[in-house]
Amino acid sequence: MTTSEKKRFLLAQETIDRKDIAELISWLETDPWLTQGPLTKSFETEWSRWLGTEYALYVNSGSSANLMMYYALLVSGRLKNRKVIVPAISWATTVAPAIQLGFEPIMCDGDPDTFGLDLDHLERLCQEHDPGAVIVVHVLGVPHKMEELLALKGRYGFALMEDACAATGSRYDGKLVGTFGDLSTFSFYFGHHLSTIEGGMVCSSDEELQDILLQIRSHGWAKDLSPEKEQHLVEEFGVLDFNRRFAFYHPGFNVRPTDLGAKLGLGQLKKVEEVIARRKENHRIYQQNFEAAEHFHCQSNHRAEICSISFAALASSEEHRARVAQALEEFGVETRPLGGGNMSRQPFWTKRYEPAVVPMADRIHTTSFHLPNNPSISPEDIQSICDVVLAVR
Questions:
Q1: What is the pLDDT of residues 298-312, one digit of tens each?
Q2: Are 192 and 316 members of one domain?
Q3: What is the pLDDT of residues 280-297, one digit of tens each?
Q4: What angle do CA 12, 314, 176 make, to 5 degrees?
Q5: 302 and 225 assigned to the same domain
């Protein structure tokens, strides 16, 4: 028996159920188109309609979505420089594209409330470096302080990338996250709010950026553009008519999705509001318990509706966290640190750059832990988990 099989409450629980599998089997028996095709376009249309952006581009993972987001801004020629502010509390593939694509990443500390970008530190970094771009993460689904962040964007003129990979359904002042930045990303990995097995989405309301994304997703060619736009490129670059199907206008990638994943995604969208409602209620119960707890600290944003992927809290010390982990182990609850903790402590960063001075991120790195939040866990279960943790001193 594996460790996960012994657990009563898992951090990640598959959202693809038996009905989804049965519908997929029936669809496969019709001998459908499997690679990127018409269902991909349908999924993109339905997702952008649900989210409230003009465009959505489906790709093979949330990590690829982040890579595409960075690269589209780079290719657009809009950035005033290659300096980008990255959050210390994030995920490896929130930061890695900056390194891979030749940006100059500058690490920003975590906010004590949301665990996202510390806005005072961000402003100091903007004053010192005048960055071309900033990437914000809605950490574990807790929306960042978007009014203040957008004010900084207006003051310092940076492009804003919004990593909402773990924040499907979260809102700030009633508006869905993923609709604030120049570009945003979502993930459909196993155990996320919605799942297409693997998969991600890049969203925007900018036609020029969308046209770039359509090309760099598939090698850099223009076959996914409108016929008029493809014709314009043929004429601009003097491409031979016989060769036009294999003309590459950007040094692109191959991060295309499949229609099999899109078929799952369309089914997942049918239950998105049900999934969101349960996750929001579970998070509310966690937050009520932990905000009143003397020996713990948790994320908060009282202008937000939080649809989290997991609930995160900080113990009072590293030793306290170890005692919490032991109590959870005995009760059958899976736990882990918050993401990769402080990204500036990760080897991929320390091999290249000096350690960042980010005290809040260090605190999160050494004392954070996750608690499960998914639709398979009832409010009664959540309360029981809270009781176990809050009894630990």
A1: 999 999 999 999 999
A2: no
A3: 999 999 999 999 999 999
A4: 55
A5: no
Q: Is the pLDDT of residue 7 over 80?
A: no
- Judge if pTM exceeds 0.85: yes
Same domain flag for 279 and 265: no
Asked if the model's pLDDT at residue 339 lies above 90, the reply is: no
Residue with tokens 């016989």: 242
Structural domain includes residue 278:
yes
CATH at residue 68: 3.40.640.10
Shared domain check, 157 and 104: yes
Domain that holds residue 223: 18-269
For residue 94, give Cα distances in angstroms to 64, 111, 204.
10, 17, 18
Alpha carbons 253 and 379: distance in angstroms, whole number: 43
In what helix (H) or strand (E) does residue 386 lie, and over which residues does it extend? helix 379-390
Among 269, 300, 323, identify where a domain stops. Answer: 269
The position carrying tokens 């574990």 is: 140
Please check whether residue 137 is in contact with residue 116, taking contact to mean a CB–CB distance below 8 angstroms.
yes
What percent helix, strand, coil does the chain show, rounded to 5?
45, 15, 40
What one-character DSSP code corresponds to residue 277?
Answer: H
